[in-house]
Amino acid sequence: MARNEEKAQSMLNRFIALKAEEKKKPKERRPFLASECRDLAEADKWRQQIMREIGRKVAEIQNEGLGEHRLRDLNDEINKLIREKSHWERRIVELGGPNYAKHAAKMTDLEGNIVDVPNPSGRGPGYRYFGAAKKLPGVRELFEKPPELRKRRTRYDIYKRIDASYYGYRDEEDGVLARVEGPAEEKMRAEAEEEWRRVEEIRREARRGAKEVVSVGAAAREVLFEEEEDVVEEERREMEEKERKDKEREFVVHVPLPDEKEIERMVVERKKMELLSKYASEGLLEEQSEAKGLLNIHR
């Protein structure tokens, strides 16, 4: 009895499914060419259908365990659907619909950075890689960026960045340099002024000592002049007496003798030295020599 009920239930299910299929419209196939579609709503419907197929295949290609061949086939099918989707999008624009291509998703690398899609032909969206297909041999290298070579700067690149700030003409505009250098400048000015005052004091003392030495020297010269006359006269007398005696003896000298002027000069010089040592002390002579050196007097 149970077997008959099961058979009846099974036949009823098949009958209900058959009636439901009769009520449905015949399944439409997507046109092979987008240009054959004349209705904007239908074109949008076929585009949505392609989008769903792309979504299913993209979800499937994320599985790395499918194998290299299956991943490559899935990636080829997805790219074929994307090309077909672009045809329908252009057809939708021709029929007066929105331009979906403006807001299309960009291709990214393994790190999520947007990369350019390789498209040697220049037509269509280009070939893309999805999911695990990006890690296939020969594909990973396409997403690796070449090492950036540091370009050597030319002389023009160096000089075009040089302005007034490079030479320090704008260092005082912000006021920081003035605040930092202010105390140091005042200290240097004070030291320079103190050094100048010390040098001036030394010069004043040197001039004062030179005047004293000159006054003492003038008095000594007067005394020397008076005694020089006496010495010269005495020397002259001695020379005359000597000449007279030499003539009397008639002695012939075989060595060169100084003349009268040379002898007179030597005598005067010796007397000067004696008088200076007599009236001027050694300290005074040293001060006189230092004063002459400071005043640049060579006489």
From TrEMBL:
It comes from Hibiscus sabdariffa. The keyword Nucleus applies. It holds the Pfam family Isy1. Belongs to the ISY1 family. The keyword Nucleus applies. It is found in: Nucleus. Its main location: nucleus. Keywords: Nucleus. This is Pre-mRNA-splicing factor ISY1 homolog. InterPro entries: Helix_hairpin_bin_sf, Isy1, Isy1_sf.
